[in-house]
Amino acid sequence: MSSSNGGSTSVRSRADAVWQRAKDTAHKEREAQSIAERAKTARLRELRLAKEAADKAAAEAESASLLVLKAAAKKRKAPKAATGA
């Protein structure tokens, strides 16, 4: 009987070792996925912030050009009113 118990203990030890390796592998895979997800999130955040900055700059440039056009239109209208008086 003692040889039977010794054999089952050895099988149990091997099974435990296999289980531990599987757990370690799964843990490493989850950690790698987590790192990849954080990197992707950071990259997407940088892209979003850059796009928002570009959109803001474009809107400001458009607003400035509209102000210039309105000022030019006022200048063109002003002399006609002054010559008519």
Task: Describe the 3D structure.
- With 85 residues, the chain is mainly α.
- The chain has one helix at 2-84.
- The protein has one domain (13-77).
- The protein has 1 helix and no strands.
- The protein is rod-shaped and about 110 Å long.
Salient structural properties:
1 helix; 98% helix; 0% strand; rod-shaped
**Class by helix and strand content?**
mainly alpha
Enumerate how many helices there are, as a single number.
Answer: 1
Termini, distance in Å?
Answer: 125 Å
Main sheet, how many strands, which sense, barrel? Answer: none
The tally of structural domains comes to 1
Secondary structure layout plus pairing:
Elements: H1 2-84
What's this, in brief?
Helix content is 98%, strand content 0%. The protein is built from 1 helix and no strands.
